[in-house]
Write a structure and sequence with these properties.
mainly alpha
């Protein structure tokens, strides 16, 4: 297993590098960058991402925040998994 501090630091560095490239390309979000790379519209990229999830819905930032808040609460004290999908509602 990878220590949490190394994992978070690695993900942060990767996200910052991706953000720099997206900003240079004029992309506002990951979907926009993906659409540009695939030569499809923003809407088509959103549909593609949604189709890759079990519920066929792309999670929003608020969905991910709600999952993070739940995991940080006492209600999640018995969860032992290493992955939680943010499209769980």
């Amino acid at each position: 297993m990878v220590p949490l501090d190394k994992l978070v630091r690695s993900q942060f560095i990767t996200a910052m590098a991706a953000a720099r490239h997206m900003r240079q390309q004029g992309s506002q979000d990951v979907t926009g960058a993906m659409a540009g790379g695939m030569n499809v519209s923003h809407e088509q990229a959103e549909q593609f991402l949604a189709s890759a999830t079990m519920l066929h819905v792309s999670p929003h930032t608020t969905d991910t925040a709600k999952v993070a808040a739940f995991l940080a609460s006492d209600s999640a004290r018995t969860i032992t998994g290493t992955q939680v999908m943010s499209e769980i509602r």
